[in-house]
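Journal club prep — side note

Before the paper discussion, L.F. wants everyone to see what a predicted structure for a comparable chain looks like in token form. Sequence:
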Amino acid sequence: MNTDATIWMPLYIGDLQAKFTRLSSEQVGATLFLMMDFWKNGPIPSEPNILMSVTKLTSPKTKSLITTLKILNLFEEVNGFIQSNYITTLKEQAILNQKMKSERGKLAAQARWNKSSSNADASDSECSSNAQALLKEYPSPSPSPSPSPSPSPSPSSSSSSSSQRKDDKNEAKPINRKWI
């Protein structure tokens, strides 16, 4: 399992629709680019060329977007970097969830291995006594007597031997009703 929480990012549709109501389609796309970059790389330098590269917008549109995102409290500028408390909280929760799932998986695997090893520790005497008890409870039917070997068939006796084989196949076999 990949332990890098940056390879995916949750998008909570209701939250984002509420946050994006005052943005244009172009601004929504640029904001998603900012969110993904912040998720993957952390705080984004507040330099115009870097912000334009991340948002794929022109300089005036990037400045307008950053101003709008600050007003909507989606992003804030701290010490020359653009950050998001919303995304930071989501990422911390994702990392915590991943650690919890990993621990649960390890515990489940350990329990599974411990259970299978305890089954493998059954002693030979326990196994043979169980087999003997089963044989007493469900005896196997006695085998039918096998026909004595006959000399190699001659052309005249071939029809009688084939009819004998048919009789063997049609012979009723005992049925153990306890298994049905």
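L.F.'s comment for the group: The CA atoms of residues 35 and 90 lie 11 Å apart. Keep this in mind when we get to the figures.
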